[in-house]
Design goal:
alpha/beta; Spermidine Synthase, Chain: A, domain 2; Rossmann fold; 4-stranded antiparallel sheet; binds S-adenosylmethionine
Length: 282
Amino acid sequence: MTEWYTEALHESVGQILRIDRILHQERTQHQDLIIFENKTLGRVMGLDGIVQTTTFDEHIYHEMMAHVPILAHGAARRVLIIGGGDGGMLRRCLCHPLDQVTMVEIDRSVIDLALEFLPMISAGAFEDPRANLLIADGARFVAETEDRFDVIIVDSSDPTGPNQVLFTEEFYGHCKRALTPGGILVTQNGVPYLDHGEQKRTYGRMRQHFGDVTAYVAAVPTYQGGMMTFAWASDNPAHRQWDAETIAGRAAKSGFESDYYTPSLHVASFALPRMVERHVAA
Ligand code: SAM
């Protein structure tokens, strides 16, 4: 009998993925976790009923959330990742000549099980001497840390369970405090055509603490609902106004391979549909 993984993230629209083989399933200290195989998407990780990452298209999301802010900043040395348990974001950040990438993940089991069943996503990133892994609540970390970061990447799931604290104005204020002057905050901010309310409120909350708040977009097939948005917050609008030639020069210095990201796409990703512009301006 065929088994299906049902994602009912949105009120009246969902998606189902055929489970061809369950590799692991458990209730961790923080969330329900499953890793299974699907003929189209490869290996899939789900947390609390929401698809987190797949070997089919994780590169799109991780390349866009890591390379865009780091290359836009142009002089980043220290990066903070909140969440990111599968290690894909850590791997893409470490493509750049950074001094250190600190990753604060609340659930050790996600890391351990991703290393066991999805090692191709992190591809050894956790072994990099520049990786500084902490198992903690990211909201508490940014509230208390005395460290400062040039880029903060919030690689969370949607605002459910332990992720909820990562969508509050207080959290964004603590992120601002933890950034160096002119630093950049980017956050996973859902699919605007289906995620009403919560994601729209993100921008207003960020605007309490940052002078330049907007979004950039990418289409990730696994995240149902068309394009997804990444919220962008900084005090320096110039960061998101570089031309493709400047970005290409910086990317060449980092010398990384990508399967989705290009300097032209970097620049184009800030061109928003009118509806998303309205969300950002709300
Ligand atoms: N790449 C996925 C996506 O596109 O939505 C999400 C990445 S990852 C699987 C989300 C991670 O955030 C999980 O590993 C989860 O344990 C972690 N997380 C959730 N709440 C957290 C918190 N308050 N502090 C730190 N990590 C948290």
